[in-house]
Specification:
The chain is an all-alpha fold. Helices cover 80% and strands 0% of the residues.
């Protein structure tokens, strides 16, 4: 009984920690729903995609490509490349948690997103239940946002629904600006990848995104120092805040 209570408390603790994420995920879920409906998905498939795929920006990218007439294979491969980071994230989580099981690993893998992973990585907690609570509330808020979206988008003014369509660009700007301000190399890499994507789109259409992403990642291996990516974590380690086995 004590173990069950402890697991429940850790789960609830993770949920409380994840509540701030919901304030961003619900409007983002509504924005995704706006793009999905515009791309031709019906309300049921729009919500089910959030539930079963749950890829955040990857979902928005997929429905945007669908709206542009991209082939299924192009959408799948592009999503695979863009979401490859989740393999690394899940490996880091499994290395950090004290004890887990295959069912819990499968569940936590499905719930993995950038924000919940980043929060858990910088925490002293090492319980899989804390992580599932943290990631789970983010997941539910994203699905809830999509559900709200399919309900209200038809009754909202056009100017309001169109405003949700810029949510993806706002998300990427929010992610990119802090990083490129700290690193000239990252800024150069972003510009190179964007230009490459623009040029390739003239020749290979929707395949330009996957090709430019791969080429950009390859270039980044040589021009971006590892300390640029891991500097914050290394600094925290040196200050004694985190152990060196986080990932």
């Amino acid at each position: 009984m004590f173990l069950i209570s402890t697991k429940r408390e850790k789960l609830l603790h993770g949920i409380k920690l994840g509540i701030p994420i919901t304030f961003g995920y619900i409007p983002m879920g509504i924005g995704y729903a706006a793009l999905a409906i515009k791309a031709g998905l019906d309300p049921v498939h729009t919500v089910l995609m959030s539930f079963f795929v749950y890829a955040g920006a990857g979902q928005i990218m997929a429905v945007s490509m669908l709206a542009q007439g991209a082939s299924l294979i192009a959408i799948v491969l592009t999503s695979f490349v863009v979401n490859l980071r989740y393999f690394v994230m899940n490996t880091c989580v499994y290395n950090k948690v004290e004890e887990s099981s295959l069912p819990l690993n499968i569940l936590s893998a499905h719930l993995a997103v950038d924000e919940s992973f980043a929060m858990f990585s910088l925490m002293e907690e090492s319980s899989i239940y804390v992580y599932i609570g943290l990631a789970g509330i983010a997941f539910l808020s994203w699905v809830f946002g999509a559900f709200i979206g399919v309900l209200v988008l038809n009754i909202l003014p056009v100017i309001v629904t169109n405003s949700f369509n810029i949510s993806l660009y706002a998300l990427f700007v929010a992610l990119l600006v802090p990083a490129v301000k700290e690193s000239r190399e990252l800024a150069i890499l972003v510009v190179i990848t964007a230009i490459l994507n623009f040029i390739l789109q003239l020749f290979i259409g929707n395949w330009s995104l996957i090709v430019s992403t791969l080429v950009g990642a390859f270039i980044g291996m040589y021009i971006v120092d590892d300390k640029t990516i891991l500097g914050d974590v290394e600094e925290i380690d040196n200050n004694g805040g985190l152990s060196d086995d986080r990932c």
